[in-house]
């Protein structure tokens, strides 16, 4: 079990680092210094928005309960599309938001349209089938 936990935490580390690095590249396209963005992203956004939300909603993952009260998967696909377009417009690598959008679109296709973004957990629990 320790090896699985370690692998899961490494997965989270790389996903978090890539999210931060990609977001920093996006604002850098407008000459925003990384240190300036890091203060907002790491010192405010992560603990206030991300950390609190994940801790609070983790029990919903266990129950498969993803109410769309504060935003649906459709809304999130629109946001991911906006992020992708902005990356293209700013000349920033756009594969990461495209992948996130594709995963959200798969969740919609599997019936989670009116659920919140945490419903992608159901997609992540399934093996990826390559064609």
UniProtKB/TrEMBL annotation:
NADPH-dependent reductive aminase-like C-terminal domain residues: 2-126
Protein name: NADPH-dependent reductive aminase-like C-terminal domain-containing protein
Native source species: Plantactinospora soyae
């Amino acid at each position: 079990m320790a090896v699985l936990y370690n692998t899961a935490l490494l997965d989270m580390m790389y996903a978090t680092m890539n999210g931060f690095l990609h977001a920093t590249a996006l604002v850098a396209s407008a000459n925003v210094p990384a240190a300036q963005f890091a203060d907002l992203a790491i010192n405010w956004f992560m603990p206030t928005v991300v950390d609190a939300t994940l801790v609070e909603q983790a029990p919903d993952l266990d129950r498969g309960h993803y109410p769309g009260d504060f935003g649906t998967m459709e809304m999130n696909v629109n946001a991911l599309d906006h992020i992708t377009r902005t990356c293209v417009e700013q000349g920033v690598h756009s594969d990461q938001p495209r992948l996130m959008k594709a995963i959200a679109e798969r969740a919609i296709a599997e019936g989670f349209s009116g659920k919140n973004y945490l419903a992608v957990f159901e997609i992540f629990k399934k093996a990826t089938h390559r064609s």
